[in-house]
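Ticket #4471: structure output looks truncated?

Reporter: J.K.
Steps to reproduce: submitted the chain below (213 residues) through the standard prediction queue, then opened the result file.
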Amino acid sequence: MGKLWRERSRTQWDVEHLPRPRKERSLPGILSTQEVERLISYGRTYKHQVFMVLLYGTGLRLSEALNLRIVDIDGQRQQLRIVKGKGAKGRYVSIPECLLEVLRNYYRAYRPQDYLFNGKYRGSRWANRSAQHSLEQARTAAGIERNVSPHTLRHCYATHHLENGTNLVYLKEQLGHKHLKTTARYIHLCQSYHKRVAHPVAGMEINFRQEAR
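Returned output as attached by the reporter:
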């Protein structure tokens, strides 16, 4: 009896140590470039429009955009300094000249203090919920039925960049991803990415032997 009990105990699983199945990560929904353009155009205020174009033009997370300070914008180097991104890691994000010009016009119009996007009081940080609500207002006005969040514009930034031929490693650094495989997920969202793949064998001129009869 004792021997039988010991054999059974070896085959019994410890429920707490059972391997858990990996949670499937669904691909995010994205907007077309035309939908992004329409979304930004329907921003209720100039501030809302600039906020959305910054998200789409840089791929910043919501917290990174709202924590952005005036001193973190380097117009000469065309860079944004992200002091504490996800995982408390800082990085530099490139910003195109056309977007820098938008930020300059925005600064002249609003004269924000400390943070780029002020809240109710100058010098205070714009609240997450207020920023999210600005996108919801624009989505409704633009007649876009699918859900749109600040992270949607981040997904659009990555996907549209890949479709335009941006290097995957460069994009990983811009987005602040820890692993390249995280950035590579966006390849599945690109409609034209696989069509641009140049297979090495396609350019070879091989002298094949006659087919055996």
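Triage note (M.O.): checked the attachment and the full token line is present. The chain has a mean pLDDT of 81.
Status: closed, working as intended.
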